[in-house]
Amino acid sequence: MITLLLGLVVFLGIHSVSILAPQWRDRTAARLGVQAWRGLYSVLSLAGLLLIVHGFAHSRAAPVVLYTPGLTWHRIAAVLMLPVFPLLFATYLPGRIQRAARHPMLVAIKLWAVAHLLANGLAADVLLFGGFLAWAVFDRLSLKRRPVRPVPGAPPGKWNDLLAIVLGLGAYALTVLWAHQRLFGVSPLT
Q1: Per the confidence metrics, is the pTM higher than 0.90?
Q2: Which of 64, 66, 96, 106 is 20 to 30 A from 27, alpha carbon to alpha carbon?
Q3: Whole-angstrom Cα distance, residue 169 to residue 84?
């Protein structure tokens, strides 16, 4: 569980630099150069992600059950997950969905985390999904007091919303029907 916690600290920590120290981030990026900053950011993000994956996998060897969700919660989680992928695509496909959600990736992360907290009751699950939920809430609240950095993506277009929905629902179906079982060893259909 220590490895999972360390991974969350590294991954969410580097993703919190713009929240907690935007001026330091800008000075460091200017001093190192934008590409070097992005490289460092990417390496730390990847290291954190690998620690999360490793720690989460090892936590399954000695699971600590905090609660046992019933089938109803699994179904609710499946419904909560429906907009997650379209929102992720809408982050990079500017349109009405992006304007309505304001920060579609943060909405997607919050829905993903809540859905997984409802469907999973192990201590590692609560740490992982609760950590991401807390970070996304904190990030969203911080956006009220700091400038929003532009997100690179497609130019605005009248088909972007439809594209986000079609691609997102396709990714949802692929995940539910194949990828979740293949990647995580758990079928969301059971």
Answers
A1: yes
A2: 106
A3: 9
